[in-house]
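Protocol step 4 of 6: structure prediction from sequence.
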Amino acid sequence: MSAGVKFKQIFAIECYAGLVGIVSKLLGIVVIFLKNPEQFNLMNPLAFNPGAFMDQKTAPKFTYTLASGLDLFVIWALILTVIGLKAAAGKKLSTAGAATAVILPYALLLLLGATVAGAFS
């Protein structure tokens, strides 16, 4: 997007946004010890996405994958990445431009993954 942000800055932004994943994994470990092993779903250990409320065996794979990709922690990390890119680029990149640069690739990859999951189920 020609904002003049260096690779080191983008890498640091992604590392800080990735810390959200650590919080998610720690909460998942707590749920493992608190929940009955028969009721534990390894694909959705926390109920922070719509896919956690769907039956993995009977739901269409496309819909299940798409719903699982709308996780609260993933959205949190995306928002942190948008904020970080906007802060690093300054006035050279608008908030909408930063959001487009972050959310559009994620949405396309999520849609592609859901399509592949639906096609090969």
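Step 5 (inspection) to follow. The chain has a mean pLDDT of 91.
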